[in-house]
Amino acid sequence: MKDEERQDDVLAQGHVPCDRRRFLSLGVGGALLAAGLSAPVQAAERLKSSARIVIAGAGAAGLAAAARLAARLDGAKITLIDARKEHLYQPGYTLVAAGIKPQNYVVVGRTADFVPRGVELLEESVAEFDPEGNRVVTSSGKTINYDYLIVTTGLKLDYDALEGMDVSRIGKDGLGSVYHSPAAAAATWALVDDFTRRGGVGVFCRPATEMKCAGAPLKHTFITEDYFRRRGTRGKTELIYHAHNKALFSVPIVSEKVRMLFRERGIKTRYDHVLTGIDIGRRIAVFTTPQGKVEQPYDFINVIPPMRAPDPVRFSPLAWQTGDFAADGWMEVDRATLRHKRFPNVFGVGDVAGVPKGKTAASVKWQVPVAVDHLLADLAGGKSEQRYEGYTSCPLITQLGRAMLVEFDYENNLVPSFPGVVAPLEELWVTWVMKTMALKPTYVAMLRGRA
Amino acid sequence: MKEFDPLVILAVFQEMLGFWLWVLLLLAIGGIVAFLVLWIREQHLVSRRLVQSEAVGLLGGVLALVIMAKVSSSGFTDAGGPLDWLLVGVIYGIGFIGTVILVYALMGWWDQFRRQS
């Protein structure tokens, strides 16, 4: 039997070539691995394998997965594909747009600096996924075959879906947009700084699609309101938050808490308002509501665009074919294992995964070890029992210097890390300290596979 | 966060402080060792020196709070719950005790050095 045929054969059985004798010699480490009980990354024995693993996307999930796989595998060919030269700490955008941190705070370094030894970085993007053929095609037309694929492409900010939107005008005419880029976040802060000195109408919103860090639009609203109060200009302003449905946050108990805080701080709330267009010159936001289109004039707006899976994923067989996640092309993965439902040698981790909630760095931190453990168990011919229950967290800033540490799962349960110590719905300085001091180092340690 | 792992905590502090993590650890360990050796050598605590170092320690606690406020872009005035006040106390306490130990050890060893020369 030729090597390629043998490869196809084992793939059909859900395994890839692995040196069985070496695996048996792993002893306790191997047994733990097969049982799905993952030991700390650095301490675990390495598993010999000649598997070809492609990781599409070198964002938080891609780099963290590469670090963990490189630490656990000996002989595997791991290829990381991403054209982006810089790695950005996206959870920091809110702090830049709040004037708390400078623009360069979110630039953590070159992507290449975080690529672990033994992993090849291909500085291109994936143009096509072909899961039936177990291959991807890059932007330059290069075909790369794989035994296992981890899709970590992140998501697409679909500004084009907003009629009249022009990203080149962010930072001018009251047009802010925190999510776009570090420069846009800094430009948004310049607008907020000016707006909170002069007053006027501030418009805030979120898209109707799945989105990364659903707490960020709320944080920005709270922070802006706090600047008004601190600067004594609160009386000269009207702040309006537009929710895309009938809630302010997907977790009901948190939504209710935010509703109370908005009421206490005089932030008006409109439900079932989805931003679908904008007239930048006239400073008018257009919302689609159940009653039709509504125009809302503004002096400042934080535009958050619809978010979807990147086109190569969205228009590939990897996307959900039916259900809530189909329209925007999120990957059809099992929500507990992150394994693709139709292509078992494919995993989807991070923002691109079509799972409820949790497009955050915290989700990535808990998703990556699960997906990696399942992949390693496949290589070892075993089975992983690890499950991702939807854990995610949001240090929801409610004013400068205070935040609520909101942690929850798929079922909307609050799952506090410090039960009885840090109350999830209490505005605390300690949570602010965590957000401003500890989260970025934790994130960077995660990229290196150390957290 | 689902679990605590000392290696993860170390990794996070390494990323947070970089080179300064080791400087601070050396300072802390060096200060404690210098204090303990001095205590054993003198076989008692010198009350006058202790009171003087405690006086400086009061400022050390304040300095710790100021540094914390600077690096967190906030301050203890943002404390909103009991845990926050506990954190304020812990930060002040670390600054106070650390300064007392360091100053006491420095003064003691300076005295020893002067006596010997």
What does this protein look like?
The complex is a heterodimer of chains A (451) and B (117). Chain A is globular, with a radius of gyration of 23 Å. Chain A starts with a helix and ends with a helix. Chain A has helices at residues 3-12, 20-24, 28-34, 60-72, 93-97, 182-198, 216-230, 252-265, 311-314, 361-379, 429-447, and strands at 47-48, 52-56, 73-74, 77-81, 86-88, 107-110, 119-122, 126-130, 135-138, 143-145, 148-151, 156-157, 175-176, 200-205, 237-242, 268-270, 274-279, 284-289, 292-297, 300-302, 307-308, 346-348, 392-399, 402-408. Chain A is α/β, with parallel strands linked by helices and 451 residues long. In chain A, the strands form 8 sheets. Chain A has a 5-stranded parallel β-sheet, with helices on one face. Chain A folds into 2 domains: 3-155 and 309-379, FAD/NAD(P)-binding domain, CATH 3.50.50.60; 159-307, 3-Layer(bba) Sandwich (FAD/NAD(P)-binding domain). In chain A, helix 4 (60-72) runs parallel beside helix 10 (361-379) and helix 6 packs parallel to helix 7 (216-230). Chain A is built from 11 helices and 24 strands. In chain A, a hairpin with a 4-residue loop joins strand 8 and strand 9. Chain B has 117 residues and is mainly α. Chain B has one domain (6-116). Chain B is 82% helix and 0% strand. Chain B has helices at residues 6-17, 19-42, 47-71, 82-116. The radius of gyration of chain B is 17 Å and the shape is globular. The A-B interface holds A 40, 42, 100-101, 366, 391, 393, 400-402, 417, 421-423, 426-430, 432-433, 436-438, 440-442, 444-445, 448, 450-451 and B 1-2, 5, 7-8, 11-16, 68, 71-81, 83-84, 87.
Q: Which radius of gyration of chain B do the C-alpha atoms yield? A: 17 Å
Q: What is the tally of beta strands of chain B? A: 0
What is the mean pLDDT of chain B? 93
State Rg of chain A.
23 Å
How many separate domains make up the residues of chain B?
Answer: 1
Secondary structure tally, helices of chain B: 4
In CATH's first tier, which class of the largest domain in chain A applies? Alpha Beta
What fraction of residues of chain B sit in β-strands?
under 5%
Strand order of the largest sheet of chain A: 7-4-2-11-22
What is the end-to-end distance of chain A? Answer: 43 Å
Q: Label the CATH architecture of the largest domain in chain A.
A: 3-Layer(bba) Sandwich
CATH topology of the largest domain in chain A: FAD/NAD(P)-binding domain
Largest sheet of chain B: none
**Principal-axis shape of chain B:** globular
Biggest interface and residues each:
A-B, 32 and 26 residues
Distance between the termini of chain B: 56 Å
> From the helix content, strand content and strand pairing of chain A, which structural class follows?
alpha/beta
Helical fraction of chain B equals over 70%
- Unreliable stretches of chain A, pLDDT < 50, 5 or more residues? 1-42
Count of domain modules of chain A: 2
